Amino acid sequence: MKILSDPSAIEAIKKTKNIAVLTGAGISAESGIPTFRGENGLWTKLSPEELASFESFYQNTAVVMEWYKHRQEVIMKCKPNPGHYALNELSRLPEHFDLITQNIDGLHQRAGSRDVIELHGNLLENYCICCGQKYSVEEFDEVFKNAINHVPRCHCGGLIRPNVVWFGEALPRENLDMAYNAAIHADVFLSVGTSGQVRPAADLPILAKQGGAFLIEINTQKTVLSGEADLILQGNSGEILPQLVEDIKTLLPKA
Ligand code: OAD
Fold first, then answer.
1. Separation CA 85–CA 88 (nearest Å)
2. Residue nearest to atom 25 of ligand 1 (CA)
3. Rounded to two decimals, what is the model's pTM?
């Protein structure tokens, strides 16, 4: 065993059919993408109200869209880290696996994960708020280059926004339902790199636990969810997840 020594964790994993995972910004920290809270977190320097709400987008479109354009560029330059790859490998071990993420960076998909349940959207997608036309990163680049006063507009004249959930907006209903379903049916639930401060995502580990799941938290620090966890693995997810997956492989031969 590389990282698992806790007998109850070993027993729970041996019996598991369904594993569900919730990831947050922490899993992408080792890829070079800043988290939101904690030391150097985005929200310690910038105001979410000024950058992550529909009102601010509507009133200060150029400022908001330049910030999102910058983040798109940062994300495009980053690569998945061993934590993302380990979760892709984990997906093949139990009978059923669900990967739920609050992240909008698409790094799970770039590490090969399929059917990722995205709760907060995807920064690499954009759409027109009037006609709904979708714009890929490349298409959006073109529009942005030619935008008058940095205000990107669709051919219909409508404003183009990133496909991310802003404060005060509802999460995509279908994805949220899939996430609830995954949490309720999980035998083992991993909460990875999330501070657990944003609902409804933060409800998922609790729901899983109430449904009988063995809850494992992987984080560099204690969080508001730590008290609920059956096992806490403290450290960088890019180091812990590959070791954990190696252990799970020995306990749970490929389904
Ligand atoms: P946070 O920034 O709130 O929390 C990141 C968590 O990752 C913290 O608990 C850190 O201790 C932990 N962490 C940092 N580096 C890590 C590492 N290498 N390995 C493991 N853990 C590490 O991010 P989220 O919980 O994802 O919402 O934030 C939730 C939502 O708040 C985001 O999706 C975003 C934000 O406002 C929207 O944009 C809608």
1. 5
2. 194
3. 0.96
